[in-house]
Design goal:
The chain is an alpha+beta fold. About 25% of the residues lie in helices and about 35% in strands. The protein is globular and about 50 Å long.
């Protein structure tokens, strides 16, 4: 499928005009970044793995009735998605203390939280994606009160789905971040899940060993990031185990 003109390039993805009005082609890059792109590298195969994993998660969420921007995967690195107006916020759900949360509140990493905590951050790399309150969101008109409620509900539904899916394959969902967008249909507007869900946007630890299977492998120099992502894909049945000949293959 031919791409249209490039409309946006981020750290991990490039967006192109889609073949039909209201669609976008989302291209997954091999670039890996951390600490707001202070640390960066190119890792062969990372984009293809994230594309497959994102497809798997989005299809599952669509199945349980949670609307997403995903339409279909086009090839090894691209997927067709609905065009939306992105709300300029990252929504984070934390189940276990880790990363910046542990540092901010001086809580030992790995401490289970008494309930899932939903946070909002302003999506602005130049400011370090600062944590914001509902008062900030309303005062700056980034989202309405109803939209804040909808974003929280979407985030917690994603958490329920992902936590159960991951636990079934021996992985602990520590935390994750999502983005949502406004989809306009005639005079109607609704919020839907957008951007991506992948190990780039989640913290995933092995249930038994706490081995990291997410971007912390790259952040903390813990080994091969593509090996970690491949392990998640193998456990989900997306890639064949032990390099066998059965199961789906990455084909252009």
């Amino acid at each position: 499928m031919a791409r249209g003109k490039k409309i946006y390039e981020g750290k991990a993805k490039t967006l192109y005009e889609g073949p039909e009005p209201g669609t976008i082609i989302q291209y997954f890059k091999d670039d890996a970044t951390a600490f707001n792109a202070v640390k960066k590298d190119t890792l062969d195969g990372k984009g293809a793995l994230n594309n497959l994993l994102c497809e798997h998660f989005m299809l599952g969420l669509n199945t349980i009735g949670l609307p997403t921007h995903f339409i279909r995967r086009l090839n090894v690195r691209e997927q067709l998605v609905h065009k939306v107006e992105i709300v300029p916020l990252e929504i984070i759900v934390r189940n276990v203390a880790a990363g910046s949360f542990s540092k901010m509140f001086n809580i030992e990493e790995g401490t289970p939280l008494p309930r899932p905590i939903v946070e909002f951050c302003l999506k602005d790399d130049s400011l370090g994606d600062p944590l914001v309150s509902e008062e900030h969101i309303l005062a700056m008109n980034w989202a309405s009160s109803n939209e804040i409620d909808d974003m929280r509900e979407i985030a917690l539904r994603v958490n329920d789905f992902l936590a159960g899916l991951m636990y079934g394959i021996g992985i602990k969902l520590v935390d994750f971040k999502i983005e949502v967008g406004r989809q306009f249909e005639d005079d109607l507007q609704r919020l839907i899940l957008a951007d991506e869900i992948s190990p780039d946007s989640c913290r995933l630890w092995d249930v038994e060993t706490n081995q990291k299977l997410d971007k912390d492998v790259f952040r903390r120099d813990l080994g091969s990031l593509t090996d970690a992502y491949s392990e998640v894909a193998r456990r989900l049945g997306i890639l064949p185990k032990n390099g066998g000949s059965t199961g789906p293959k990455l084909v252009e």
